[in-house]
Every structure is written in C-alpha cells, then in structure tokens.
Amino acid sequence: MYRIDNPHELAARVNAALRRASHEVSRKSRFEVLANQVRVSGKIGSYYQKQLAQEALKKLSPEIDVINELTVER
C-alpha cells in the first residue's frame, strides 16, 4: 500500500488493479475517481468477481474509499 496524491496516477492504478482482479470485471466495469474516492460500477457475472474487484481496490491505499456499485447479472 502506498499514498496516491495524483488523481491520474490513481486512475491508472485502479485500471490495472481491475485488470488483475478479473478480465470480465475490467471489461464490464466503469470507474470514477473523485479525490480519494473510487466508485466502480457495471454489470458482472458473479458475486465472486464483485469481491475480487473490491479487494483489489482496497489494497491500493488505506486512504482510498471504495464505493462498489457493481451488480451481478443472473
């Protein structure tokens, strides 16, 4: 974990974290960076993928609030 002060750097790290978490999550999600807050949304295939995304984003920095609005399609 590290401090991220630049919103563009944070956006790049969020994008990379979502790609590492799951290919489907990275393809089917959108995210928005506001100050030290990341909001991720979209429709994905499983609760497991939602959890993978959540945990990947939480690991970026303890200073970031993650708002997980991913929904699971059935």
What does this structure look like?
This protein has three helices and three strands; from the N terminus they run H-H-E-E-H-E. It has about 70 residues and is of the alpha+beta class. The protein has a three-stranded mixed sheet with strand order 1-2-3. Helix 1 packs antiparallel against helix 3. The radius of gyration is 11 Å and the shape is elongated. The model has no long low-confidence stretch (mean pLDDT about 90).
Largest sheet features: 3 strands, mixed
How many helices? Answer: 3
| CATH fold-type name | Histidine-containing Protein, Chain: A
Rg from C-alpha positions? 11 Å
CATH architecture: 2-Layer Sandwich
Strand content of the residues, in percent? 25-35%
What is the class in the CATH system? Alpha Beta
Averaged pLDDT: 90
Low-pLDDT runs: none
- What is the N-to-C order of secondary-structure elements (H for helix, E for strand)? HHEEHE
Structural class: alpha+beta
- Helix percent band: 40-55%
Q: Can you count the beta strands?
A: 3
Helix-strand layout with pairing:
Blueprint: H1 7-21, H2 23-28, E1 29-34, E2 37-44, H3 47-58, E3 65-72
Parallel strand pairs: 2-3
Antiparallel strand pairs: 1-2
